[in-house]
Each structure stands twice: as C-alpha cells, then as structure tokens.
C-alpha cells in the first residue's frame, strides 16, 4: 500500500519550515550550552566572569524566541498536535535536548511529507 502523494507546494512549505527550525534548534542549543557553561563556572566554581559575558543569557534568549517562532511555523505547516508543539518548544530550555528533538522532528517530518 502506497502512502498518499503530498502536494509539491505543501512539501516546499514544510521543507522550508523544517530548514528554519533545524537552524534555530542548533543555534539555540549551542547558545544554551554556552550559557550553562558560564553559569556553572560562575555559580558552581566561583570563577570570576567578565562583565561582557553577561550578554550570553540575552543572546540565548533572542535565539530561543527565534526557535519558538520556527517551532510554531513548522507546527502549523506540519499540522502538529498541541502536545508536540509544547514538547518541541520546551526542548530549547534543556541542555542538549534541542539537538535530540531536532533530529527526531526532522526524521518524523521528512518521512511524513516525503522530503
């Protein structure tokens, strides 16, 4: 039994949304790791952090907002259930989880939309 053919325009929309989401997930994940490292050094080991390093949290926050927007964009185009949106959105707040969830969503969406 063959799966139904996905309209090429929808495939293109989902493919673009997936690319943006993947980029945002990786950038958010990297900045979250940088932020976590800074916080562990500062609060865990008492390492004196330069004042310019305080901007790391703001940078991660900016990229996390971008991640949320791309999650909503992909969720709308892929017609996700609310639970999938929420779990995907929360993945940008836990170190390493954005990488895991990005790979999982990429695999799911690629298979579902025959990309």
Automatic annotation (TrEMBL):
It is a multi-pass membrane protein. It comes from the Bacteria. NCBIfam families: integ_memb_HG. Keywords: Cell membrane, Membrane, Transmembrane, Transmembrane helix. The chain crosses the membrane at residues 20-40, 52-76. It comes from Corynebacterium epidermidicanis. Pfam families: DUF3817. This is Integral membrane protein. It is found in: Cell membrane. Residues 18-106 form the DUF3817 domain. GO terms for cellular component: plasma membrane.
């Amino acid at each position: 039994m063959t799966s139904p053919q996905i309209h090429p325009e929808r495939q293109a929309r989902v493919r673009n949304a997936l690319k943006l989401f993947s980029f945002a997930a990786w950038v958010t994940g990297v900045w979250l790791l940088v932020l976590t490292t800074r916080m562990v050094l500062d609060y865990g080991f008492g390492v004196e952090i330069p004042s310019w390093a305080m901007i790391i949290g703001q940078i991660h926050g900016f990229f996390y907002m971008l991640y949320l927007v791309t999650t909503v964009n992909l969720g709308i185009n892929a017609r996700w259930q609310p639970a999938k949106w929420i779990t995907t959105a929360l993945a940008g707040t836990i170190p390493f989880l954005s990488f895991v969830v990005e790979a999982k969503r990429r695999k799911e969406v690629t298979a579902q939309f025959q990309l």
